[in-house]
Design brief:
The chain is mostly beta strands. Helices cover 6% and strands 53% of the residues. The protein has one domain: Jelly Rolls (Sandwich), CATH 2.60.120. The strands form 6 sheets. Strands 1, 13, 14, 17, 18, 19, 20, 23 and 24 form a 9-stranded antiparallel sheet that branches.
Length: 306
């Protein structure tokens, strides 16, 4: 076993996107090699409909995949290809934007007005930047959930874990996307293939992720001094943990337990040219995309993609 070192802990930062959606961004629009193949991760959680109900009206994507995971409330979506539907609590949508798509996502709270979900952007390699767009909408009931003898629960959204395989397939980044809950006070280890870039995002409770260079671990929270993190907020949530190379992630759950997303993928290691929701390999490709947006040729027909 080789323990993955904790490279960094980072609190998600407040941001406003779409038509005025208040969210927290764990990473995005920084060095794209940092978590290659992943580009951006947003946590949209709010109890005030005024801060999310205007949603994300029509906007383009090209060259990436977007992964939306809903925990509370619903997200209605539609696109320029005629697809439409609603994601409910526990549902996942994996959208391959490929050559280009226009879509909208409109969140609605539950009966108490609560809305909570995540969106992750995964890069596409140059060979698939202009592939035909496609959706994979997955209902909560179709996502396998495995509970270990010690009470640890893992929802396997993408990839294989503990003998179960998630329902999303055919993804370029070979990702693993797990929703993990560890009971109070329990220490638990998770094997992750060494070649994968890996991060955890804590959104409930507290936990200590063991560090290869510090056997006592790194306690998640807000204030970092070297690799020590001093507890200031007892919730400990909205925290990104970025790992180095190894094959094992170990966490010691706090007194209220800990729940986090554990995400990993194979790095693409290609140049990134990025403008908003369009991610290509070169500036020339970006300029082409923007020209096509202006002249109405951004969306390709099926014949164009053959």
């Amino acid at each position: 076993m080789s323990l993955r070192p904790v490279i960094e802990t980072r609190p998600a930062r407040p941001a406003i996107e779409g038509a005025g959606v208040h969210l927290h961004r764990a990473f995005g629009f920084q060095d794209p090699s940092e978590l290659d193949p992943f580009l951006l991760f947003d946590d949209f959680r709010n109890d005030d409909p005024a801060k999310y109900s205007r949603g994300f009206p029509w906007h383009p994507h090209r060259g990436i995949e977007t992964i939306t995971y809903v925990l509370s409330g619903t997200v209605a979506h539609g696109d320029s290809l005629g697809n439409a539907g609603t994601l409910a609590a526990g549902d996942v949508q994996w959208m391959t934007a490929g050559s280009g798509i226009l879509h909208q996502e409109m969140p609605r709270g539950n009966a108490r007005g609560q809305m909570h979900g995540f969106q992750l952007w995964a890069n596409l390699p140059s060979s698939l930047k202009m592939t035909a767009p496609r959706y994979q909408d997955v209902k909560s009931a179709d996502i396998p959930e495995v509970t270990d003898d010690d009470g640890t629960t893992v929802r396997v959204i993408v990839g294989s874990f503990w003998g179960r395989r998630g329902p999303v397939d055919g993804i370029a980044a070979d990702p693993q996307y797990l929703d993990v809950t560890v009971p109070p006070g329990l220490k638990k280890s998770f094997r992750i293939d060494t070649y994968r870039r890996t991060f955890a995002y804590v959104f409930e409770g507290t936990g200590t992720f063991a560090d290869a260079s510090r056997p006592a671990g790194v306690l998640l929270d807000k204030e970092v001094a070297g690799r020590e993190v001093t507890v200031r907020d007892p919730s400990g949530d909205r925290t990104l943990v970025r790992f180095g190379t190894g094959d094992t992630v170990t966490v010691q759950a706090g007194p209220a337990g800990v729940r986090f997303l554990l995400v990993s993928g194979a790095p693409i290691r290609e140049p990134v040219a990025w403008h908003g929701p369009i991610v290509m390999n070169t500036q020339e490709e970006l300029r082409t995309a923007m020209t096509e947006l202006r002249n109405g040729s951004f969306i390709r027909s099926a014949a164009d993609q053959d």
